[in-house]
């Protein structure tokens, strides 16, 4: 400490030359990898992946933002989910209606088959109209609430969510119907 006023860190090694980079890197690699074989490393990776998937599953059930998949993260996606979940949508009843319409179309009565075809048309038109209205409203609301955020894909994300029955949606709905997000 002849010319410097700073004190040396007490754990800094002194009294030997600085090792060459190649030697230092090989020592670091050997220290990091000596405790685990390839089999143990793959087992540990599997366990970590399993734990991460379990955290993600629990987050989808509870709505915990930290562990959600990337497609569900962020305030824009949260608002889009809440926007969809707070309203009734015809599209969420598409699957049950499709089963009823298919059963009606299989009955060997011509009038019932005609009614089934008409129902298909009515259901599809109603879903398209509902989706268009929801898309425009959501796009406008997102532009007002999140002018500086990246809103790309949020409307399509929300419309795909309307196609799922409410109880099967993941992440689980965090708002009740009629509540304003």
Automatic annotation (TrEMBL):
Pfam families: DUF3043 (PF11241). Residues 23-36 have a biased composition (Polar residues). The chain crosses the membrane at residues 90-109, 115-136. The keyword Chaperone does not apply. Keywords: Membrane, Transmembrane, Transmembrane helix. Residues 1-58 are annotated as: Disordered. Residues 37-58 have a biased composition (Basic and acidic residues). The keyword Transmembrane helix applies. This is Membrane protein.
């Amino acid at each position: 400490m002849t010319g410097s006023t700073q004190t040396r860190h007490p754990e800094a090694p002194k009294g030997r030359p600085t090792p060459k980079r190649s030697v230092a890197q090989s020592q670091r690699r050997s220290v990091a990898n000596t405790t685990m074989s390839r089999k143990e490393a793959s087992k540990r990776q599997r366990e970590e992946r399993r734990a991460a998937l379990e955290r993600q599953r629990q987050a989808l059930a509870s709505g915990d933002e930290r562990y959600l998949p990337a497609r569900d993260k962020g305030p824009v996606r949260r608002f889009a989910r809440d926007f969809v979940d707070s309203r009734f949508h015809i599209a969420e009843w598409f699957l049950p209606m499709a089963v009823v319409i298919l059963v009606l179309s299989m009955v060997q009565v011509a009038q019932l088959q005609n009614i089934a075809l008409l129902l298909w048309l009515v259901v599809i038109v109603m879903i398209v109209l509902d989706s268009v209205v929801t898309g425009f409203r959501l796009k406008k609301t997102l532009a007002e609430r999140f002018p500086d955020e990246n809103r790309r894909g949020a409307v399509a994300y929300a419309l795909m969510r309307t196609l799922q029955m409410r109880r099967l949606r993941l992440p689980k709905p965090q708002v009740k119907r009629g509540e304003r997000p």
